[in-house]
Write a sequence for this structure.
């Protein structure tokens, strides 16, 4: 994290190379103040004032930091979550230089996308984490519906699809001490005003953007505001333990249920199966070729039909 701050400070011309060694001696708690200050500085097109102007939420986005560039909003969020950040704090960056995708993959984050992380202090045990990811997917899908995208779908566990192509990914990370989850970082990457050509060649065929689907540029600040409102609504449902309501909303938008998939679980051999549904803790329920039912808790599903 110190390296991250040094990079930010250098970028903002706030520090000379000579004083970097001094930074290395600064108390770690003072770093969070520096990070927060940087997140209140002028950015190019994502503006906290625009987002917060009409933001109709009680706790999501009340504390909001927007950066021109960070390595990963999840990393910044994780650090701030351990240093006095409120439940619902939002970290946004116009660009990320080392963004994280699922399964240790990287995530392309050029200018024009919406890259954000939300800090939650949900007081739950590990078994509920998958539901937070599913709930976030529902919030993104509802956001897309509100801005005019037809039929956004959710591919288990966390990809938002339009016309069969990925437009958004979600990376949920827990900050835990021993067995207790202290903070959950919900990272969301939405390919908003990007061109397909902005993506690495190998991803282009399976990727779309909101601009590509709607045929016009959208307002990122508005998109973020709507998403934060949808996210708060569904996190209240989660806090109220109305898990079935979240699952019902998810099932309505599922891209995966009813399809034949190749299941790729960590530390397991791949196998083909038919997707029957989703269980109450967010695991995918599949029927294997031999007719047995299996719960898929984590991993990936490659759609085969
Ligand atoms: C996936 O692989 O589908 C998940 C991608 C998650 C990307 C987002 S962008 C904002 C946040 N910061 C990160 O480093 N990753 C997440």
């Amino acid at each position: 994290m110190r390296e991250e701050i040094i990079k930010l400070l250098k970028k903002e011309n706030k520090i000379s190379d000579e004083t970097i060694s001094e930074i290395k001696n600064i108390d770690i708690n003072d770093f969070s103040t520096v990070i927060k200050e940087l997140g209140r500085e002028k950015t190019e097109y994502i503006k906290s004032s625009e987002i917060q102007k009409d933001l109709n939420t009680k706790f999501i986005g009340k504390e909001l930091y927007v950066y021109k560039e960070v390595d990963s909003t999840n990393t910044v969020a994780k650090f701030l979550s351990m240093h006095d950040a409120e439940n619902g704090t939002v970290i946004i960056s116009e660009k990320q230089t080392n963004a994280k995708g699922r399964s240790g993959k990287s995530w392309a984050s050029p200018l024009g996308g919406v890259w954000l992380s939300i800090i939650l202090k949900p007081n739950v045990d590990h078994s509920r984490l998958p539901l937070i990811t599913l709930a976030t997917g529902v919030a993104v899908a509802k956001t897309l519906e509100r801005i005019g995208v037809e039929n956004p779908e959710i591919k288990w566990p966390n990809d938002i699809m339009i016309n069969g192509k990925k437009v958004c990914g979600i990376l949920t990370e827990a900050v835990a001490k021993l067995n207790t989850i202290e903070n959950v970082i919900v990272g969301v990457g939405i390919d908003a005003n990007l061109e397909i050509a902005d993506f690495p060649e190998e991803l282009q065929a399976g990727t779309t953007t909101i601009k590509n689907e709607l045929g016009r540029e959208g307002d990122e600040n508005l998109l973020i505001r709507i998403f934060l409102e949808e996210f708060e609504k569904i996190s209240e449902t989660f806090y109220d333990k109305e898990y079935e309501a979240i699952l019902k909303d998810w099932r309505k938008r599922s891209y995966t249920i009813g399809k034949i998939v190749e299941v790729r679980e960590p530390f397991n051999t791949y196998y083909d199966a038919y997707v029957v549904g989703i269980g109450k803790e967010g695991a995918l329920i599949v029927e294997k070729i031999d007719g047995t039912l299996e719960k898929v808790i984590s991993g990936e599903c490659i759609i085969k039909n």
